[in-house]
Amino acid sequence: MAPLPLLAAACLACTLAMFGTGLSDLRQMLATKSVENIQFLPFLTTDVNNLSWLGYGCLKQDWTLITVNTIGAALQTLYILAYLYYSPAKRPVLLQSLLLLAVLAAGYGYFTILIADVRTRLARLGLFCSIFTISMYLSPLADLAKIVRTKSTCCLSFPLTVTTFLASTSWTLYGLQLHDPYITVPNVPGIVTSVMRFWLFWRYPPGRDKPYRPLHA
Questions:
Q1: How buried is 117 (Cβ within 10 angstroms: 0-12 exposed, 13-18 middle, 19+ buried)?
Q2: Are 69 and 16 in contact (CB under 8 A)?
Q3: Higher confidence at residue 157 or residue 10?
C-alpha cells in the first residue's frame, strides 16, 4: 500500500477537485444572476458533511481531514451565500440555512457538553459522519434508476463522477492505512455508485440522446 503522506496528498487533491466541480454552478449563478436549474440542497448537505468531518478531524488531530474539510466547508458556504443572493425565493433558502445552523449548534452541544470522554466523543462523531456520508452517496440511486428508464445520461456530470471515484478510493485506502473504519466504510459506497455511473455513461453515451441534425456542406 502507498505511504501515508502519498495517500494524504491524493485525498487532498482528489477531494478538492471534487469540490471544485461546484464552481461551474457558481460561475453560472454569477453569469446569469439566477439560480435556475441549480439545486440548493446538495450545497447544504455537503456543508454539513464537511463541518462534521472537520470536527472529527480536529478531535483526531488529523491534518488531512482538517485541511480538506476546512476548504470544502468554505467553498460550500460560498455557494450557499451566492445561491441566497441570487435566489428570488429567499425565505425557504434562509430557513433551510438557519436550520443548518441550529443542527450544527445542537450537534456541537451534544458532542462537547454531554459527552465528556474524548474517545467516546470521537467514536460517536465518527459514526455520525459515516452514516451521513453513506446517505449522501446513496441518495442519487433514485436518479440512476430514472436514467436507466429514460436511457439518457444528460443529467449526470462526468467530471464529478471521475473525481468522486478518485476521492472515494483515496479515502478508502487512507482509512485502511490508519485502521479507521469511520473513514474507510463510508467511502466504499462512493466507489460503488461511481462505478455504476461509469457503466451508465458507457451504456447510454451523452451524445446519443441528442436530436439528429444533418450536416451541411
A1: exposed
A2: no
A3: 10
Which residue, chain included where needed, has cell 453515451?
205
Convert 83-114 to b/e letters by CB count within 10 Å (16 or more is b).
bbebbeeeeebeeebeebeeeeeebeeebeee
- Please state, rounded to an integer, the average pLDDT across all residues of the chain: 86
CA distance 1 to 14: 18
Residues in Cβ contact with 75 at an 8 Å cutoff, skipping those fewer than 6 apart:
19, 20, 22
- pLDDT tens-digit series, residues 43-63: 888 899 999 999 999 999 999
Report the alpha-carbon distance of residue 176 to residue 151 in Å, rounded: 37
**Residues 113, 121: Cα–Cα separation, whole Å:** 10
Angle at 131 between CA 130 and CA 137, to 5 degrees: 90
- Please determine, for residue 90, whether its predicted confidence score (pLDDT) is greater than 80: yes
Residues 109, 110, 111, 115: is their CA dihedral positive or negative? positive
CA quadruple 194, 199, 204, 206: dihedral positive or negative?
Answer: positive
Q: Decide: 122 and 59 in contact? Cβ < 8 Å.
A: yes
Cell matching residue 101? 445552523
Considering the entire predicted model, what is its pTM? 0.85
Distance CA 122, CA 148 (A): 40
Residue 182 in grid coordinates: 469511520
Q: Are 190 and 164 in contact (CB under 8 A)?
A: yes
